[in-house]
Write a structure and sequence with these properties.
By secondary structure, the protein is an alpha/beta fold. It has 13 helices and 18 strands. Helix 4 packs across helix 10 and helix 9 packs parallel to helix 10.
């Protein structure tokens, strides 16, 4: 799988600092206002200090943000240690997933507060710009031509209609606008793609971050979307590689991974997650997280969806499929938060079935992003006003568009102990 030059620089730096070295020196210190330098000169430990226009925020660009932490080994607070790793084993993730619920929640909530300001939650709006008529056989999807559902195929929305919807979403508090089209891939849809590029430019000009989910992309299409101003691209893996063939047969798992690579190579943030309630077992939920947590770069955001069963789809008509409850969602979100500490975890489809108290449990588990608006493609979602009332109740504030996340208050106050390693490099 091809890797972008931006990734190669980051990846090589990370490997060089850890593996190709004659010695490693690690020190743990509490942060103070001034930089602290160890007496041997090998390790520098300091709190992040914003030099940008808005003090207290990290860079919005994920590559730039992650490059700040190449030499960071781990963080510790409240008896919990966390680190950004790409070498997780399935057993390690399974052991975390299987923790007693109260222990898992404490660990995930602590990790969340080590890396994030838990009061800031990103608000995204998802609009279906091309509904129905998809030739894929995804067994959960109401938009497939292979299933008899309430969805009727519609043509692609006009550019002005989409921009008007984006404007309404911005007025309601959304800072990221995502456009979804029900087709297998962009392929040779040149006219439709040109219209989408125009939509991306228009939404971007409003000051909103722009996301698309358009099926499979090739490298050139990803490059053009990046040039038009696309912030992120959603392409879910849905479930584990082992369970995937039971859900979808018209597109391979490798097809999905290749699209993710094309997106990353273009410098677009990757949004990639899965769905609970597809008839999977717990080992499949662990398997999905294992794939995500061992990607060369963790996704910028990981949506965790609860299946919204639709009559007429194979999964909607299968009475043998167990439902997904708030504890299932919280356990998945918590595990994702622990194994991908710097990734935004998005509470996505299925929120209509959960009370505010149940959703709060999921935010405590580490979710820090939601989809809002009354529709998620073709299924119901809480109204804007209801989400704003929930935010007020919880004391949450929305993340601004095109601005990086707030620095963790626990980090700023010195509660987090950070271990950094500076390696002595060997050159051939």
């Amino acid at each position: 799988m091809a890797l972008s030059s931006r990734f190669l620089v980051s990846s090589l730096s990370r490997r060089f600092a850890v593996k190709n070295c004659s010695s490693r020196v690690a020190t743990t210190k509490r942060f103070s206002t001034a930089p602290q330098i160890s007496t041997d000169g090998h390790v520098i430990v300091d709190r992040y200090s914003s030099s940008g226009p808005e003090k207290g925020r990290l860079p919005n660009d994920g590559y730039e943000r992650n490059s700040m932490y190449i030499e960071e080994e781990s963080r510790q607070m409240g008896g919990v240690t966390a680190s950004v790793r790409h070498d997780w084993s399935k057993k390690e993730i399974a052991d975390i997933y299987s923790l007693p619920f109260h222990d898992l929640m404490y660990r995930a909530s602590t990790v969340h507060r080590m890396y994030w300001d838990a009061s800031e939650v990103q608000q995204c709006t998802l609009l279906s710009i091309k509904t129905g008529g998809c030739t894929e056989d995804c067994s959960y999807c109401s938009q497939s031509t292979r299933h008899k559902t309430f969805v009727k195929p519609t043509p692609t929305m006009k550019v002005q209609e989409v921009l008007e919807a984006a404007s309404r979403a911005k007025e309601a508090g959304s800072t990221r606008f995502c456009m979804g089209a029900a087709w297998r891939e962009l392929g040779n849809k040149k006219n439709a793609f040109n219209h989408i590029l125009e939509m991306v430019r228009g939404v971007n000009s409003m000051g909103l971050e722009v996301c698309c989910t358009l099926g499979m992309l090739n490298a050139e299409q990803a490059k053009q979307l990046k040039e038009a101003g696309l912030s992120a691209y959603n392409h879910n893996l849905d479930t584990s590689p082992e369970h995937y063939p039971n859900v979808i047969t018209t597109r391979s798992y490798e097809d999905r991974l290749q699209t993710i690579a094309n997106v990353r190579d273009a410098g677009i943030s990757v949004c990639c997650g899965g769905i609970l309630g597809l008839g999977e077992k717990e080992v499949d939920r662990v398997g999905l997280l294992h794939v995500l947590a061992t990607l060369p770069d963790h996704p910028e955001s990981v949506p965790i969806n609860a299946l919204v069963a639709v009559d007429g789809t194979p999964l909607g008509d299968d009475d043998g499929i167990d439902g997904v409850d708030a504890f299932d969602m919280a356990r998945m979100i918590a595990t994702a938060r622990i194994v991908m500490p710097r990734t935004m975890v998005r509470l996505s489809a299925g929120r209509m079935s959960f009370s505010h108290a149940e959703q709060y449990l999921m935010f405590q588990a580490g979710a820090n992003s939601i989809f809002n608006g009354d529709k998620l493609l073709t299924t119901d979602n809480p109204e804007f006003d209801e989400d704003q009332a929930m935010f007020k109740k919880f004391g949450f504030k929305g993340k601004p568009a095109h601005k990086g996340p707030l620095v963790s208050p626990a980090e700023s106050s010195g509660e987090v102990i950070i271990t950094k390693t500076e390696a002595e490099r060997q050159y051939a």
